[in-house]
Amino acid sequence: MHYIDPHIHMVSRTTDDYKRMALAGCVMVSEPAFWAGFDRSGPEGFRDYFRQLTQFEARRAKSHGIEHRTWLCINAKEAEDVSLSRQVIAMIPEFLEHPSVLGIGEIGLNKNTRNEAIVFLEHLDLAARTGELILVHTPHLEDKFQGTRMILDMLADDRRIAPERVCIDHVEEHTIRLALEAGHWVGMTLYPTTKCTPARAADLVELYGPERIMVNSAGDWGHSDPLAVPEFIFEMKQRGLGKSIIHRVVFDNPMAFFEQSKRFVAPSWA
Amino acid sequence: MPAPPEAGEILDRDFLETRAKILEIAASLDRLDRSPGRPGIAPDRRLAQIRQALEVLLVPEPGRAETIQRIFSREYDPNWRSALEVDAAR
Question: Which residues of A fall within a CB distance of 8 Å from B74?
Answer without folding.
Answer: 112, 142-143, 145-146
